[in-house]
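The protein record quoted for completeness.
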Amino acid sequence: MKKTFIYQTKIFSRIPPILRDSVDKLLQTSFPWAFEHATSEHKDRFCSRKDIFCHIVALERNIPIGYAAGLKRSIIYEGRSILLGGVGGMCVTPNRRNRGIGKRILDQTMRELQRIHCDVAYLCTNVNESWMVKFYGTVGFVPLGRSHTYVGKTGKRYTDCDAMIAQINSQAKFQFVLHEKSAFDIGKGNW
């Protein structure tokens, strides 16, 4: 039997200084490759901190146990203007996984993307992991099924094949992105 615990989620435009180190530790635990081996290429690819408009933090006794960043940017894709929303850094501390915390954070992030009128949401994940596809699918994300591209801070163009997208406020733009044949250009930096 799992022990009951109480937590709350809070939305911050900036992470308060008192939580910064704890959130960083959570991110380092969840994404060790991004911190231990942060190559110049990795830093070049993920150069979009300015796109973060909110931080969703799950707190248990004021200790971060879950996190996601809400991101947004305006892009032009195949001649169409799209307000692209995103979910980045989604994680839950290992000893609190599989208890609904991640789902609650994801739901709240999607509500924030809707609130700021994003057309379509994007995220990158391992689309070969069925549990990830299923988890993000609970809020409407589907694998893009083709490559997406972006420009790093240095101007170098990168192409990856790990995107999922979801409809937020525009079914027409979501369908257009989903069914267009060309690589989905998400702008400057990956999330």
